[in-house]
Every structure is written in structure tokens, then in C-alpha cells.
Amino acid sequence: ILRPRARKLGLGTAYIHGMKHATGNFIVIMDADLSHHPKFIPEFIRKQKEGNFDIVSGTRYKGNGGVYGWDLKRKLISRGANFITQVLLRPGASDLTGSFRLYRKEVLQKLMEKCVSKGYVFQMEMIVRARQLGYTIGEVPISFVDRVYGESKLGGNEIVSFLKGLLTLFATT
């Protein structure tokens, strides 16, 4: 069921909007442009059942996961962001900047109450806060295919915001 909003209001408010309409115990978050292929959803469900995980996160950086359609600069930025985060925060998950995830609904609601970040760092904070609150996280390797239409919002301002957010999380977790 599509529940459109009048205009773009940001990722966090999109999550809140989606939770209002979700009727089940689990919520799958994914890019609507199909960069995240729905074929991985059954694997997320299997992984959740197998380990009774609170969150199952798609990872481009483990197993047979990967990224297709990105130039070298974009790949380096993503890998670099994940590497720096691993060193500073030790979150116990391999792909912190991705957004293809399955959440227990009540866990997602709790995390939304705790998270303060905006933009690129928001996905990272969700995992860091989840670990801080003792939630369990499983991972499923995924293939990410860059969007065919539209453009990435990742630019200089987003990178600076990411670094500020990373340092804030380092200081507060």
C-alpha cells in the first residue's frame, strides 16, 4: 500500500509516517527506487527467524554482497565512511551507511525516539544506538545497484555532516 506524503520531509519523518501505517510486528526499510532489490526480503526474514534478531541489516561489504554502478569516488567514500566508523565506534555491523533493513516494529520505534541525526549519518546512528541499547543485529549480504533515475544527495555538505555526526556519536556513546 502506497501512503504518499505531500512533499519530501526527510528520512526520519518518512520512517515515522511508515510506522503509523504498519500493521505487522516487523518493518522492512528499503530504497523505493529499487536500488535495494525486493528479492532479498525472504533472506532477511529467514535470518531474523534463525537468530531471533531485533534488526537484520543488508550488507554490501560481507559475503557475496556488492555495489554496482558506482564510480570509484563513490565507492571510496562509502568504504571510507564505514572504515572510520568501525575504528571509532566498533558497532559490530559491517555496513553502517546502508538503509536496507528489517526491524522489529517496537525496536524501530524506540530507536527513532533515541536518534537525533539527520542525513547520511542517520543510518549509522540507528545501528550504533541499537548496539548501545542491547538489541541484536544480523546481517544479510546484498547487491546494491545504483539508481537509474535521479541523483544521489551525497555531496560535500553531507560528508561534513557525516563527520560531525560521527564525532558526536564517538563522544556520546
* Quaternary organization: single chain
User: What general outline do the C-alpha atoms trace?
Assistant: globular
Strand content: 5-15%
Sheet of most strands: 4 strands, mixed
Mean pLDDT rating: 86
The number of helical runs is 6
- CATH-assigned homologous superfamily: Spore Coat Polysaccharide Biosynthesis Protein SpsA, Chain A
Query: Are there runs of 5+ residues with pLDDT below 50, and where?
Result: none
Widest sheet: strand ordering? 1-4-2-5
CATH classification class:
Alpha Beta
Strand/helix succession? HEHEEHEHHEEH
Radius of gyration: 15 Å
The helicity comes to 40-55%
Protein name: Dolichol-phosphate mannosyltransferase subunit 1
Cofactor: Ca(2+); Mg(2+); Mn(2+)
Organism: Heliornis fulica
Pathway: Protein modification; protein glycosylation
Structure overview:
- It catalyses: a di-trans,poly-cis-dolichyl phosphate + GDP-alpha-D-mannose = a di-trans,poly-cis-dolichyl beta-D-mannosyl phosphate + GDP.
- Keywords: Endoplasmic reticulum, Glycosyltransferase, Magnesium, Manganese, Metal-binding, Transferase.
- Belongs to the glycosyltransferase 2 family.
- By secondary structure, this protein is α/β, with parallel strands linked by helices.
- The protein has one domain (11-172): Spore Coat Polysaccharide Biosynthesis Protein SpsA, Chain A.
- Helix content is 46%, strand content 14%.
- The chain has helices at 11-21, 41-51, 72-89, 105-114, 121-132, 156-172, and strands at residues 26-29, 55-59, 66-68, 101-104, 137-141, 143-145.
- The strands form two sheets. The chain has a four-stranded mixed beta sheet.
- The chain is globular.
- The termini are far apart.
- The relative contact order is 0.21.
- The model has no long low-confidence stretch (mean pLDDT 86).
